[in-house]
Write a structure and sequence with these properties.
The chain is of the alpha/beta class. Helix content is 57%, strand content 13%. Strand 4, helix 8 and strand 5 form a beta-alpha-beta unit. Bound molecules: CO-5-methoxybenzimidazolylcobamide (B1M).
Length: 210
């Protein structure tokens, strides 16, 4: 479909205005928000990652691509966010210390918000102390995101810090992000792993019911 292809290309080229226009055009043409997200925005960002790995683009290009995706996501958000169900949990979400990637984390937050959870977005580069503060303030779930192999280890130290603070039993901890796997989540003592934003919604429901 031409619109999806143009949307993908706008993300790859870092053209925020075009990406925003293509999302609006796609919605007006009746393309589902989830399709625009997966086949346009996420496909574009995956291509940028591939090009970066191949040495075809560099950090500045990744950054403008991320800005284009963020701008387009803002338009998509009300359409992605399904009808809310009453809040039955407070989720503190953040990208682990040392890590500045936030697009995936924002997407997970958006989907959870749309599913009726109260979201406390701690942002990026989040130290353990901030997660601990959020638990003391009433978060039932901590959701951590990491995109770098060098920062995923901070998930483990955060879980340890939560345990040392005597708070481990009162919170569910879930993790996700491109380098994270189910076995890594098990290894570090998390309560669950979600591969993408929609499975994160299912996972939060599951861990809160457990
Ligand atoms: Co970065 N970067 N980056 N980057 N970047 C990656 C991650 C990389 C894989 C690129 C590559 O080499 N192919 C690579 C990591 C290699 C590694 O560690 N193995 C990399 C690198 C090396 C770096 C720098 C070190 C580059 C440098 O400076 N030399 C640097 C690090 C900065 C830092 O964080 N300290 C860096 C910087 C950046 C930018 C700032 C330029 C920009 C981020 C802008 C931003 O986020 N605001 C950027 C980008 C855009 C990327 C890529 C291209 C795209 C990431 C993205 O947004 N994907 C990325 C390559 C790639 O992933 N293919 C790359 C789209 C997003 C929707 O997917 O985040 O995976 P994702 O989220 C998914 C799931 O993972 C899951 O759900 C989401 C939705 O489906 N999920 C969760 C995520 N979090 C979850 C939490 C949960 C559950 C599910 O909670 C339970």
């Amino acid at each position: 479909m031409a619109i999806l292809e143009e949307l993908r290309a706008a993300v790859v080229d870092g053209q925020a205005k075009v990406a925003v226009a293509k999302v609006s055009e796609g919605l007006a043409a009746g393309i589902e928000a989830g399709t625009l997200l997966r086949e346009g925005l996420i496909a574009g960002m995956a291509e940028v990652g591939q090009l970066y790995e191949e040495g075809e683009v560099f950090v500045p290009e990744m950054l403008v691509a991320a800005r284009a995706m963020t701008a387009a996501l803002a338009v998509l958000k009300p359409h992605l966010v399904a009808e809310g169900v009453p809040s039955n949990g407070r989720v503190a979400i953040g990208t682990t210390q040392g890590d500045l990637h936030d697009i995936g984390k924002n997407l997970v937050a958006m989907m959870l918000e749309g599913s009726g959870y109260e979201i406390v977005d701690l942002g990026v580069d989040v130290p353990a102390a901030k997660f601990i503060e959020a638990i003391r303030d009433g978060a039932n779930v901590v959701a951590m995101s990491a995109l770098l192999t060098t920062t995923m280890t901070n998930m483990q130290s955060t879980i340890e810090a939560i345990r040392e603070a005597g708070l481990r039993e009162q919170v569910r901890i879930i993790v996700g992000g491109a380098p994270i796997t189910k076995s890594y989540a098990d290894e570090i003592g998390a309560d669950g792993y979600a591969e993408d934003a929609s499975s994160a919604v299912r996972l939060v429901k599951e861990v809160l019911a457990a």
